[in-house]
Amino acid sequence: MTEKGRISEINGNTVTVVPEKSVSCFGCMNQECKSGGGYITAENSNALPLTRGQTVEVRAPGVSVFGQAMAALLPPIFGFFASFFIARLLFPNAADGVYGAIGIIFLFATAFLVYRIRKKFPPGKAYTVTRIIG
Description:
By secondary structure, the chain is an alpha+beta fold. It folds into two domains: 2-61 and 123-132, CATH 2.40.50.140; 64-120, no CATH class. It contains four helices and five strands; from the N terminus they run ββααββααβ.
């Protein structure tokens, strides 16, 4: 995930960036900016000569973004299949629709649980400054 923004503060190797508003901001309805104060904290691991007011590009590694996506998507899927098959063991004479309904209920319950856990313990984004734009 790549973001562009203006440097507002430099503290050693850590840089605070105010992101530019873009189309990607519509995806989360600016919830990330509102909860984090509208700032991105990034590491200057490339030792670029940075100054306040510069426009830079910061990037989160694809592995980190993929891991966060899997942590959000896989538990509800596993919740569905686990509850579907457990319901088959507990209620062997029920109709298939009952098993599906129980699976869907647990799919949404697990998704809500993941949502609540992520709200309480948000994942850290390991942004790094990749280049100076202006």
